[in-house]
Amino acid sequence: MEKISIEGTPKTPTITFDTAKGFLEIKGRSIPENSIEFYKPLVDWLEKYSGSPKSETSVNIQLEYFNTSSSKCILDVFKKLEAINKGGSAVTINWYYEEDDEDMLKAEEDYQAIINVPFKMVQVAE
Amino acid sequence: MMLNIYEFYDKMERNNIMLSFKGDITSELLTSVLQIMESKLDTLQEEPKIKKKVYNVLVECLQNLYHHLDEVSQDQNEKIRSAIFMIGKIDNSYNIITGNYIKNTNIEGLKKRLDDINILTKEELKEYYKLVLNNGEMSLKGGGGLGMIDIARKTGQKLNFDFAPVDDKYSFFSLNIKISQ
Question: Domain for residue B77, yes or no?
Answer without folding.
Answer: yes
